[in-house]
Amino acid sequence: MRARRDHATAGATRVAPARRRLGITVTLLGALVLAWVGTVWFWQEPFTALYAHVEQHRLAGAYEKRDAAYAATRTSLAAEARAYRLATRAGQPLGWITIPRIGLHAVLVDGTGESQLADGPGLYRGDFLPGEGRLVYVAGHRTTYSAPFANIQDLRRGDEVVISLPYGAFRYAITGHRVVLATDVAVLRSGDHEELILQSCHPKFSATHRWLAFARLVSVRRSARGRPV
Amino acid sequence: MLVAIAGAVGALALAAPAFADVTAGVPGSGGGNSATGSAGSVQVGGGNTSGTSIGSAQLGGAPDLSAGTSQSTPAGGSAGGNTAASVAGGSNSADHSIGTVQSGGVSSGTSASASTSEESASVSAPATVGSGDDNTAGTSVGTVQVGGGNTSSGSAGTVQSGPVTATPTVNLAGPILALSDSLPVTVGGTGGNDASGSAGTVQIGGGNGSSGSAGTVQVGGSSGSTAAGTSPAAPAVPATTPSTGSTGGVLGAQHTAGAQTAPKGSGVLGAAARVLPYTGLALLGFVVLGLALLLSGGALIGRARTT
């Protein structure tokens, strides 16, 4: 009887350190997860930010080559924009998007799929390019992948948004914002006039809604290479 | 629409015996034609290219055809008719193609009128196909493109047409009754077609996209396809209110539900996205996970102490 109790006591002393080590490991893991949450909350997601930074660097180089090789052949701005859109594949760099108010200067990517938005702000492929006189719909992450639209809620009426493409630079002015459900795809429907919509998820750490910032076209500056050859 | 053009050309011969006024001009578009390495190419107007092509016929740069006739009747009345057809500018290109036929935007107007001392009647049917934008059909086989703004690079057997509009109008005026009616008909939305990498695609109406598709049929614009198969785009909707605009739908319908223009087509069979692009992060789940791990770890340490 005493021997059996001694054996049980020895087993318990072996289990206790192992359980303690496991407990410490799990606790550390939990602390790390919460630390990561805090980092994302107060700054942004660091790992995907690193990935997006590398991808933006790659895309900037690719766009520089594309821009240098660009030669317009169309006479009208709309036809030129359309030809450029049709010549662009998903994931390719389209141009630069600059929003001084939120400190954004990033390569605009063609497409709003998961892989495209991981590279940078993306142009919805169901809509149009600047210059076509229709809806230009740009989406960007709010907390991950460099969080290009992290502070989209800070945009105010009149704030400037510039989209630079090989055939011209388009300056828009913010006119307002709206929060819609994630399923409200009617906002993707183009009207018969040029309008820019910037989209990001809302609330900041959810995906139930979308924050939309609307902008109207203010001016167009066609680039020298944007004129027909 | 080709019927209308044929009618316009045919009217040239019919009009000749009467007091005919016939003009045919090719103003040109300012650009030159080229058909390097091609066989059997026919090019009219300017700005056409068809290098290394076989059997291409290209039309652009607005050759104008118009004919008019009028004749008096012994009873003091008159009868007459006018036809006109033109092809808008815009350059075509069909590099590496076989059997390609391309045309810029086509417009035609046919009208006829007759009157007596008390009554008059007139009928007109102006019609247009597409715009004056450019067509391209590089590396294509058997492509036919009408209307401008079409592309079908890498395609085989593609037939594309820009948006088609027609507004037949009838006017009757008599001593008792005056009647005027018109029925605007439109097929397709704005913009051109795109069928890059496709095979056997037929697109009518402009604003279609079917990159990477095979065997796609699209009518009426406003659809996109990236999958193999057949994609009937906008269903035909009878015109009920001729006065409404007809830019996005078919046969006078102002806008066909669920047929938003999708230039590059992110969905199949014209289906648009069901949710807006996902750009967020469900951080709450990670908060719960972190707290759960902390509590579990604390519990394990506590049990280790008690043992």
Number of DSSP helical runs of chain A: 4
Quickly count the domains of chain A.
2
Average pLDDT, all residues of chain B: 55
Order of helices and strands of chain A: HHHEEHEEEEEE
Please give the number of β-strands of chain B.
22
The gist of it:
The complex is a heterodimer of chains A (229) and B (307). Chain A is α+β, with helices and mostly antiparallel strands and 229 residues long.
Task: Give an account of the 3D structure.
The complex is a heterodimer of chains A (229) and B (307). With 229 residues, chain A is an alpha+beta fold. Chain A is 35% helix and 28% strand. Chain A has an eight-stranded mixed barrel. The N and C termini of chain A lie far apart (101 Å). Chain B is of the alpha/beta class. Chain B contains two helices and 22 strands. In chain B, the strands form four sheets. In chain B, strands 1, 5, 6, 9, 10, 11, 15, 16, 17 and 18 form a ten-stranded antiparallel beta sheet that branches. In chain B, a hairpin with a 4-residue loop joins strand 16 and strand 17 (178-182). The longest helix of chain B is centred in the last third of the chain and has 24 residues, at 283-306. The model of chain B is unreliable at 1-31, 221-262 and 264-271 (pLDDT under 50). Classes of the chains: A alpha+beta (229), B alpha/beta (307). Chains A and B meet through helix 1, helix 3 and strand 7 of A and helix 2 of B.
